[in-house]
Amino acid sequence: xxxxxxxxxxYDDDEIIYTCKECGSILEVIQTPSVSKEVFSNRKNTMWxxxxxxxxxxxxxxxxxxxxxxxxxxxxxxxxxxxDLYVKVEGSNPTGSFxxxxxxVGVTKAMxxxxxxxxxxxxxxxxxxxxxxxxxxxxxxxxxxxxxxVALGKLAQAMFHGAKVLGINGNFDEALETVTQLALDGELxxxxxxxxxxxxxxxxxxxxxxxxLGWQSPDRIILPVGNAGNISAIWKxxxxxxxxxxxDDIPMMTGIQAVNxxxxxxxxxxxxxxxxxxxxxxxxxxxxxxGAPVSSTKAMRAIQESNGTAETVxxxxxxDAQKYLARTEGIGVEPASAAxxxxxxxxxxxxEIDKNERVVCIVTGHLLKDPNTAIEACTQPTxxxxxxxxxxxxxxxx
Length: 398
Ligand code: F0G
Fold this sequence. Notes:
This protein is of the alpha/beta class and about 400 residues long. It is about 40% helix and about 15% strand. The strands form 3 sheets. It has a 6-stranded mixed β-sheet, sandwiched between helices. The protein has a 4-stranded parallel β-sheet with strand order 8-7-6-9, sandwiched between helices. The structure holds ligand F0G. The site of ligand F0G has 22 residues, from helix 3, helix 8 and helix 12.
């Protein structure tokens, strides 16, 4: 069943609907699985091992075996910052971002509904993922991207998997408005995170964190926030495992935004309950260059109900954190993902995170998604003859 998060109106599972007909608010899927956690342990390690919690027919799933991503204990950074740190590496999903979890459920739902055209607006990763899953399902796919503001790897993926790619003169928020109109006009099935089935897939990040920690909740989960679907999804997953009795505690949900694209963090910092959109959002972390997050109500609830917080970081802090994670722990992530590490550092420095907290930072997309930013952040290779003696001289300088 689908339910409005504001007025509680209910809708059938087979209705194609994105916002409440009564009050216009966003929707969520509800189901009440009754299962013991022991059933998960003997299953193949993909996100579908939690299939009782996924509201589609898992026998007919459109899947690339997403999920079960690395959960790396990061003692070097953890020690430096005085926390017990784990990093959940979502760049290890099939197309290199957490979106694959959402698309697997979302495209499976599209098949159940019998649609033939799917679409989305995207800062890049959503389009890359949808293009791949649409290809696997044999569906037509159209994606609207803010022209000139999508990282190269993501653009390559969307095009290569055969989606119709349109570069929109405008930002992500404008592209989302247009694609939503197309969906409401019945032209396509919308697979942005306003579609509540997308978030059903992404809540498995929360499941895996709990499972990875031996059926315990961390003290805190930190992640980058753009359109605010993922923080809402993970919180939903955590609450479902809490309600199922699998965990007693819950983590403080902590969202990080780029300082010039921070409507949610601004609202939290100012103690407001309403989120005011940011007009011309900007950041080098193009994935989270979003001014009017569609799931802001859900995200605000996640932060408030969990006693969490939100913080802003600058582009320089993001780039420093990206390099720090890559060079200290060997984990390569795209700029938006590094916002979680930059945010952790800032919150520790501000004294908002207690020493010895058990913290999980989610890094959302792979380094190779945005090769240009990575290359620009480095000294270029030294040109030299293939001569051992000459190279020995360089070795001495290292
Ligand atoms: N990190 C990465 C790498 C992303 O691609 C996104 C969102 C986020 C974080 C933020 O997640 O929107 O759920 O709060 N990317 C979307 C896209 C908007 O179109 O690929 P969110």
